[in-house]
Amino acid sequence: MSALDTDLLRAWLRFEPGACAEALPRLSGDDERALLDALDEKELERLVEHAPVWWLATTIAEHPHLRWHEAVAGAGAHPNVVHTLRVLPASTRSALLSEVAPRRRVRIQRALALPSDRVWSVLDEQVQVCHPDELVAAVVERARATSEAGDDPWVYVTNADDRYLGQVSILRLSEAEASVRVGDIPLTDRPRIAATLLLADALRGANWQTYDSLPAADDQGRFAGVVRLGTIARALGLDAAATDPRRVGLLSALLGLWTELLIAMVSRSRNAPS
Q: In the chain, is it the N or the C terminus that has fewer CB atoms within a 10 Å radius of its CB?
């Protein structure tokens, strides 16, 4: 594989990480090694978020010199990361997590300790969080420095005890006076969902007709991340894109159809926060 081929694969991984990651197991050993050695931290993070778990488990063992711990730390308790860590040998898993920052490591370990059918296993932690006393200018600058196209359009506001207070759109912050505190801007409040809730119960109980995402709280009431309707549907095997769809009966099929309709409705307004 030439240097140009490697650059093309890296570009594909950046712009279509899911499709690229699914194709990587077909690379030869030498080509795979050349690509992995060329990946930067963010690209390696995308890899652990999207590549097949069986392939990741083998690849991590075969290439221990790569900065897998940084990729795991960046991805947090992403479902693919949690599934991958579950199938790794205990010694490898411990070595990876020992190099992750304590707070992120605790969240990942909690996700590992919970059954995979809980909300915690599908939480998105890659969201913008701030405190009400922060100035708008500082929050907007941080959001611009860390956000990418297609990211969550919200900033989630938490207090000193890590409790969710509400959320405000990045667009609203961009239009506000730079010297104003975030807490002085009216916040949008959404229902909280328990991170320990069963996925099936979260799908049935939450108001998904109104929202496509909800803030999640841990068992101490602290903000734990964001749960999204589409992620729950994929975890339950209810969406058309599920890689391993379950055999379902009539009731489950109807629930799946209802879910797909909801996903279609809320996705139209995802990037137009109200």
A: C
* Neighbour count for residue 24 (Cβ, 10 Å): 21
Q: Who's near 259: CB < 8 A, 6+ residues apart?
A: 203, 229, 233, 238, 239
Q: What are phi and psi of 240, to 5 degrees?
A: -65, -20
- Give the residue from 165, 164, 167 showing the smallest Cα distance to 152: 167
Let me know: does 213 contact 235? Beta carbons within 8 Å.
Answer: no
E strands, 54-163, in order: 128-130, 154-158
Q: How far, in Å, CA of 56 to CA of 62, rounded?
A: 10
For residue 130, what are the CA distances in angstroms to 16, 86, 149, 150, 249?
A: 29, 31, 20, 20, 44
For the entire predicted model, the pTM comes to: 0.59
pLDDT band at 242 (very low <50, low <70, confident <90, very high): very low
CA angle 163, 167, 171 (to 5 degrees): 150
Residue (of 192, 204, 125) closest to 164 by Cα position: 192
User: How many Å apart are CA 36 and CA 230, to the nearest integer?
Assistant: 30
Site of tokens 């913008």: 128
Can you tell me the mean pLDDT for 25-38? 89
Q: Find out whether 224 and 120 touch, Cβ atoms under 8 Å.
A: yes
- In whole angstroms, give the CA distance from residue 185 to residue 172: 9
